[in-house]
Amino acid sequence: MSDTRVNQLRRDFPILDQEVNGEPLVYLDSGATAQRPTQVLEVERRFLENENAAVHRGAHTLAALSTVAFEDARETVAAFVGAAPEQISWTLNATDAINLVTGGIRIASAGRGGPRAARLAIGEGDEILITEAEHHANLVPWQELALDTGATLVYVPVNDRGTWSVEDAAALISSRTKVFAFAHVSNVTGLVADAKRLTELAHDAGAVVVLDACQSVPHLPVNFPAIGVDFAAFSGHKMLGPNGVGVLYGRAEMLDALPPARTGGSMISTVTMEASDFMAPPTRFEAGTQPVSQVVALAEAVRYLESVGMDAVAAHEAEMGQLLLAGLSGIPGVRIIGEPAGVPRAGLVSFAVEGVHSHDVTQFLDSKGVAVRGGHHCAQPLHRRLGLTASTRASSYLYTTREEIDRFVFAVGQIRGWFGVDA
């Protein structure tokens, strides 16, 4: 996108037009939470002011309007990832979505859920494959599932740059692999995994594939059915939408087989004092009162992204990622995590400054008006493998400008001198 186009988009994000510590804000923490355009904020407000009511639960006018908006949003979000409406269920966030999958497999592994669930059962002698680069949301639930079922948790190791390859994963996929769960895009290294090829390899071995799509759906054109994954998860707050809403995608036959890990009202067809029957997907996975206004706002965020064009978003962020890499690569004492400049990656870069803790790096940059993320980014094993306790991450989005990248790089270049460790 041209500078003119990016600056036009920025006018839709009032939060970006402010000063922090006396400096114009440079927001490079979209990998954690993206900012919301006025259009998304206004849609949620209008819904709450005019249509707010419980969905699927009343015959009055507001209930009908609310239900229509709720289900229209499902169609919009589903189409954005190439899915049918019945293939996506609303969750609290991506972590919640992954836990619904592991929880359902846990129930199936205990012999419950009926004949269809049996295909998901795992136990001793089976393996759950992940990678050493996973976000804790796609690690801890699988650890717990392995402990509960007796399955073995196996991981694809990363190299000295913190990345892994299709070949690395293929070497570990076997007839014992029952689940392969991995991130489409790493939130630390920016690695974009070949999800389609990896899915094919896992399916050839009879494994179920679960995709953490938190860092791909907001930034790349994504079509889950075309990739072929069995389940996928992503969050609203990383794609210009609100907090408190996420999405679980599943292939129809896999959703039919997955027992609900969360039960209660709204997801049942019949309840007696002795037993309950559950509704078909996607309602089966939507127990209790849903985040209706957040769902409506997420659909508006999708429409906003579609108006910009996901190809344009991806191209812009690829450029921003290479600018970040090129700028940081020229600064002495800065160690970049991930592949070097020139290798395709998402629009984010994590790095360590020699002699300065990431929290100090973050605070120094904040004093210059630059917002970045410091810490282990919910990826402690990856950092441990690289000999780091933490790193600093700069992550771009469709509203990031080249001038902001320049300001960030200039500020990073001052850090070691300011802390007296540049000798």
Automatic annotation (TrEMBL):
Top-level taxon in the UniProt lineage: Bacteria
Keywords assigned: Pyridoxal phosphate, Transferase
KW Transport (keyword) present: no
GO terms under biological process: cysteine metabolic process; proteolysis
NCBIfam families: sufS
Role of this protein: Catalyzes the removal of elemental sulfur and selenium atoms from L-cysteine, L-cystine, L-selenocysteine, and L-selenocystine to produce L-alanine.
Name the record gives this protein: Cysteine desulfurase
Gene name, Swiss-Prot/TrEMBL: sufS
